[in-house]
Write a structure and sequence with these properties.
Elements: H1 7-34, H2 37-53, H3 59-83, H4 95-121, H5 127-151
Helix pairs in contact: 1-5, 2-3, 2-5, 4-5
Length: about 170
């Protein structure tokens, strides 16, 4: 191949591609670090559901409560997924996202089960309120660090050892 390549033009082309990609990563990292609204709303919904679960509801009332909780979580997920202007392609979510989600489910579920058994064993009054408060607290304390950990390697994914990351300033001139 005898086509000459202009190094400066090639670098500008690379930057034109890389800058929007960096903006997407910046947005994802910013949301993982600063957007706590969804976490608090989810924890509030969890608290309401667990506190209400302790009431003596008929069987149909329990199913209505469970359906309302699931519908509220789905609506929250839809609202928060549409708020972000930029989204990562599904292939950019790696094993850390899966591990973070699974660990959150195990930790939240384990806390709910353990606090429920503990309040039953100690026959504490208002056991469902204690269970709801501890479970929502554990959820809030886990989600922030887990989100930051899950998105931290995204910027480096897809880059191999041959990719140029920075350009030396006016080196050859």
């Amino acid at each position: 191949m005898t086509t000459p390549v202009d190094a400066e033009r090639a670098w500008q082309d690379l930057q034109r591609i890389r800058v929007p990609q960096e903006r997407v990563y910046d947005e994802v990292e910013r949301c993982a670090q600063t957007d706590r609204g969804g976490t608090y709303v989810t924890a509030g919904l969890m608290w309401l559901f667990l506190a209400s679960w302790g009431l003596d509801l008929p069987k149909w009332g329990s199913f209505v409560l469970l359906g309302a909780y699931v519908a509220a979580l789905v609506a929250l997920a839809v609202v928060y997924s549409r708020r972000s202007r930029m989204r990562l392609h599904r292939s950019r979510y790696g094993w850390r996202s899966v591990v973070s989600c699974a660990a959150g489910a195990v930790l939240s579920g384990g806390t709910i089960i353990l606090t429920g058994r503990l309040t039953d064993w100690l026959t504490l009054p208002y056991g469902s309120l204690i269970q709801a408060t501890l479970s929502a607290g554990v959820f809030v304390l886990f989600v922030g660090p887990a989100n930051r950990w899950a998105v931290s390697p995204l910027r480096g994914r897809g880059l191999n050892d041959h990719t140029v990351r920075t350009v030396p300033e006016e080196e050859g001139r």
